[in-house]
Amino acid sequence: MAGHSKWANIKHKKERADVKKGKVFSRMAKEIISAVKLGGADPKANPRLRLALLKAREANVPNDIIDRNIKKASSADQADYTEVAYELYGHGGVGLIVEAMTDNKNRLASDMRIATNKRGGTIASPGAVAFNFDRKGMLEIGKDQGSEDDLFIIASEAGAEEFETVDDIYIVTTDPSELYSVKESFSEKHIKVKEAYLEMIPKSFVEVDEEISKANEALIAWLEELDDVDEVYHNMQFKE
């Protein structure tokens, strides 16, 4: 359970925590609506809705927002949402993956073209960037929850892939399908998990100087402001 540090990619999103929280609520609402559209409003008979509700509660989405979106989804007037991923080349050859959920693909396509026109970069063909990323489950646990050795053992026995210490937290990496089962293993031992989420982890990074870094940050910030966009992943690493 060892590997290169993922903090360079993850830290970028930490700096926009408030924006991310709003995006998470929006994403959860879309997933609930999409699940209800596909399989009905009864979680017992709709596995996709059960998962969406679990994720929403893990993200601390208030119950009234959850209930409101279930009712909204039951309306014939409510549009459905589709998951869309765009792959981009940023400045200096940096790869970007933009994950979105939209009820209007044409609007999203237009927004993506405007973003690259305004902030640079080019839209790549499917697979051109994604091959360099792996989707992983990530758990963050504060160091106050136990010793590194004890938590490492729990993570290993639960089937986690990697365990590392970064600043004041432990980061546990899992297969995406094992994220919540590994989290449950910690919960059963009364260990509080600060965050549990899915992440696209680069297999290799592109080192950039300050000028290129700022140009890519401006592009990423623009993309993150788009209503349909939920996450922007990159493989940029600032030269030490």
Give your account of this protein's structure:
This protein is α+β, with helices and mostly antiparallel strands and 240 residues long. The chain has eight helices and ten strands. The protein has helices at 7-14, 17-39, 47-58, 63-73, 105-119, 148-158, 179-188, 210-225, and strands at residues 82-89, 95-102, 122-123, 133-142, 162-166, 169-174, 195-202, 206-208, 229-234, 236-238. It has a four-stranded antiparallel β-sheet. A hairpin with a 5-residue loop joins β1 and β2. α2 (17-39) runs parallel beside α4 (63-73), α5 (105-119) packs antiparallel against α8 and α6 crosses α7.
Low-confidence stretches: none
Distance between the termini: 26 Å
Structural class call reads alpha+beta
Spatial order of the strands forming the largest sheet: 3-1-2-9
Largest sheet: 4 strands, antiparallel
Write the layout of secondary structure elements.
Blueprint (H helix, E strand, L loop, with lengths): L6 H8 L2 H23 L7 H12 L4 H11 L8 E8 L5 E8 L2 H15 L2 E2 L9 E10 L5 H11 L3 E5 L2 E6 L4 H10 L6 E8 L3 E3 L1 H16 L3 E6 L1 E3 L2
Parallel strand pairs: 8-10
Antiparallel strand pairs: 1-2, 1-3, 2-9, 4-6, 4-7, 5-6
Summarize the structure.
Helix content is 44%, strand content 25%.
Which key phrases capture this entry?
25% strand, alpha+beta, 240 residues, flat
